[in-house]
Amino acid sequence: QVQLVESGGGLVQPGGSLRLSCTASGVIFGFYTMAWYRQAPGKQRELVAQITTGRRTNYADSVKGRFTISRDNAKNTVYLQMNSLKQEDTAVYYCYGKNEPIRSPDYWGQGTQVTVSS
Hints:
Elements: E1 3-7, E2 10-12, E3 18-25, E4 33-39, E5 46-51, E6 57-59, E7 67-72, E8 77-82, E9 91-98, E10 107-108, E11 112-116
Parallel strand pairs: 2-11
Antiparallel strand pairs: 1-3, 3-8, 4-5, 4-9, 5-6, 7-8, 9-10, 9-11
């Protein structure tokens, strides 16, 4: 059974930092492209950052220079370091994983709330 479990969300002031973690089980993690998405109230879910098996990364324009995605295959974990947080970063953040070569299902975590507010 595949599980993605996020942690690290919370309340932070504008300009602050948070690090999200997502730990996978039930998969050979190193074969999976991993990503973070977010969904704010009343908005569609959007891609925030992605990291491939070869560690290539891409980011939404709105977070470039502020967020960093990384992975530790030995720990089956993907991270999202979020710096210089803004109120518009407030959303539920979801971890996503997919094994592209074998066209696996899309796997999602349960989400973790990030609230940026003074």
